[in-house]
Amino acid sequence: MASRLLAPESMRIALLLLAAALAACAPVQSPDAGSPPATGVRLDAERTSPTAVRLRLQNGSSERIGYNLCVSALQRRDGGNWTAVRTDDVCTMELRILEPGGAATFDKTLPGGLAPGEYRYTTNVEMPLGRSQTSVSSNAFRM
Prior knowledge:
Blueprint: H1 8-25, E1 41-49, E2 52-59, E3 65-67, E4 73-78, E5 81-84, E6 96-98, E7 103-109, E8 118-126, E9 133-137, E10 141-142
Antiparallel strand pairs: 1-2, 2-7, 3-6, 4-5, 4-8, 8-9, 8-10
């Protein structure tokens, strides 16, 4: 039986999806100062209830970006550092596309038993789409 080769465009899409899935599994590394202003991409966190936060990703850049807000990581301020907080979230490893000027929202449930303090979310975005990743941090909120 003859094997069937993927067309170059199909191969490119398959590789892009595989790279995005692998990257989404990687831990989020983020700078301490928040979102890099040069990217034009902004992540906002809004408490919608005592147990929930709505994340809003805004693409203020001129490029399409890839994202998956489900895999955003919760962090807690510990002195001058931000440390990861385990959430046990279950997410599908899909890459979504956000057009320039677009916005996307995602509701996150906060884990029970969080200590009082300052928290934020971080997420990776693929920017420009298919080339490199950058980490974006939300505004801080208190528990």
